[in-house]
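can u do me a favor
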């Protein structure tokens, strides 16, 4: 039986550190605050929002939710986003994407204050991830994968990692974060030839393809670690990952479940980034409150 790598254990491991940091910042006169910007009411956005609100409440970190109607014009959306962006009591902003088809997210990627961009949507923060510069914010899901691997003390330096998926949201930034940990990363995608064989050679297989149950037992060798980032409709009202869990679990050494794996760590990373943003605000000239 493979070891089950549970996201809640990682989140619980991060909890006290986050509570202590939040209290330390409040004692210094800054009340860390995340703004969630949601356009419309997509079920997956609402599900993530509920999870984030619960996690932040458990940590005592403030959250404001700005709900913008799906019918908003581009101009009205950008106006409202700019107001939140300019609000000095807001330290981090999470914008749910993709936006409805009627709205363009490109202008807000340029508009967002890089210091508040806690889910890494602007070019400056993406560049920092690629430069290995820690002064920005890594996107929450890729960082959650790294936090999970570190929590379970899975060696990364020198490890062979096959990463399936090259999107800007997950695959590419995650490849950079794993490279920074001195792993040898093979970035696979839909045109990769002999994908099962490439993955079979890896110590760690990370699936972020958005293709239900595509990672079968043929992708994993005995003892390998399997990290499933995928969230797919299982056709029965629930969700499933990119990994065919039962057969992969029988073949590998350790594996994350879906749900209950990587997804359970992302809101803790969001909290970590929000606290980092609040701390950086405090350190800026004029950031420290009087008294
Ligand atoms: P995407 O569709 O933008 O990118 C998918 C990538 O996988 C592409 O690079 C594509 O080349 C590759 N790919 C697709 N099918 C493949 C196949 N059969 N073989 C090899 N490569 C293949 O998706 P994304 O936004 O990167 O998200 C990936 C998955 O992660 C989705 O299931 C998404 O729902 C999930 N996700 C989870 C979280 C989380 O918090 N756990 C957050 C974001 C995304």
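np, heres the sequence
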């Amino acid at each position: 039986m493979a070891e089950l790598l549970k996201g809640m254990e990682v989140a619980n491991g991060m909890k006290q550190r986050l509570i202590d940091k939040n209290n330390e910042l409040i004692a210094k006169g800054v009340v860390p605050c995340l703004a969630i910007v949601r356009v419309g009411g997509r079920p997956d956005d609402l599900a993530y929002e509920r999870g984030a609100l619960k996690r932040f409440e458990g940590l005592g970190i403030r959250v404001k939710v700005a709900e913008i109607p799906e019918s908003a014009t581009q101009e009205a959306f950008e106006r409202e986003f700019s107001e939140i962006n300019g609000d000095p009591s807001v330290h981090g902003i999470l914008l749910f994407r993709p936006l409805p088809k009627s709205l363009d997210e490109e202008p807000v990627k340029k508009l967002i204050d890089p210091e508040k961009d806690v889910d890494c949507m602007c070019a400056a923060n993406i560049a920092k991830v690629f430069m290995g510069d820690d002064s920005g914010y890594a996107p929450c899901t890729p960082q959650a994968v790294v936090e999970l691997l570190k929590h379970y003390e899975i060696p990364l330096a020198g490890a062979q990692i096959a990463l399936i998926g090259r999107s800007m949201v997950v695959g590419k930034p995650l490849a950079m974060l794993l490279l920074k940990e001195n792993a040898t990363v093979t970035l696979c995608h839909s045109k990769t030839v002999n994908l099962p064989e490439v993955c079979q050679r890896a110590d760690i297989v990370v699936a972020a393809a958005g293709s239900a149950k595509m990672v079968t037992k043929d992708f994993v060798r005995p003892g390998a670690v399997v990290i499933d980032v995928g969230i797919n409709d299982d056709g029965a009202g629930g969700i499933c990952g990119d990994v065919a869990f039962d057969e992969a679990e029988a073949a590998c050494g350790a594996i994350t479940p879906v749900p209950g794996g990587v997804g359970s760590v992302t809101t803790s990373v969001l909290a970590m980034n929000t606290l980092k943003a609040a701390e950086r605000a405090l350190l800026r000239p004029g950031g420290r409150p009087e008294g």
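The chain has a mean pLDDT of 97. hope that helps!!
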